[in-house]
Amino acid sequence: MDRKSHWETVYNTKNPDEVSWTQEVPQTSLDFIHSFKPDKASKIIDVGGGDSKLVDFLLDEGFDNITVLDISGKAIERAKARLGNKAQEVKWIQSDILDFSPEETYDVWHDRAAFHFLTEPEQIQTYVGLTKKTVTGHMILGTFSKNGPKKCSGLDIKQYDEQQMETTFQNFEKIHCKTEDHKTPFNTIQNFLFCSFKRKQG
Asked: What is the DSSP letter of 84?
């Protein structure tokens, strides 16, 4: 089964309380975004946003230039249904991140969902090249740490430590990394590594 089919099946068959990544309040992501002190017109993209509630909080805070990208059309449908009329204020993009061809650049790139599913070197390099071309300001990446799971949703993932993250994204200056225990809706613990970066000048 290809990646798109896999994720369409997940979102067609499971509710938010049945998938491990659900967060009622994505506090760590919000804290990192706030640390950049972006203005409300900043272009923010949530990569692999699915039906994450990050977009809800950003809209409530008055951010008005938000893009959500996900491989699953069903995930985007669910997010739109939850947001109701507010969904019209968001740009929605259905695409595999490896096929994404952005028409604009972004001040803030956020991803706690997609990057760690890229396990082949050429996939990782494609992603790195995409961020190099597309991110003009800051980036937040949440991945599974070395103490995290080795699989997610039945798929292999790649674990990272702080040094690997810094080495992988050499066009960015690492600002801060922290590990976090994410409690899933079914009361298991997944250890994440979150890192923030700033685009290097020149």
From this structure: G
Q: What is the pTM of this model?
A: 0.87
Residue 118 near residue 106 (C-beta atoms within 8 A)? no
The secondary structure of residue 177, as a DSSP letter, is E
Residues 48-73 pLDDT 10s: 998 889 999 999 999 999 999 999 88
**Burial profile 80-94: b = 16 or more Cβ within 10 angstroms, e = fewer:** beebeeebeebebbe
Beta strands in the chain (DSSP E): 44-47, 66-70, 90-94, 106-111, 135-144, 151-152, 155-156, 172-183, 189-199
Residue 180, SS3 per DSSP: strand
In degrees rounded to 5, what are phi and psi of residue 118?
A: -90, 105
Q: Each residue of 124-176: pLDDT tens digit? A: 999 999 999 999 999 999 998 887 667 666 667 788 899 999 999 999 999 99
Task: Determine the Cα–Cα distance for residues 191 and 202; give it in Å rounded to an integer.
Answer: 35
C-alpha closest to that of 195 among 159, 162, 164: 162
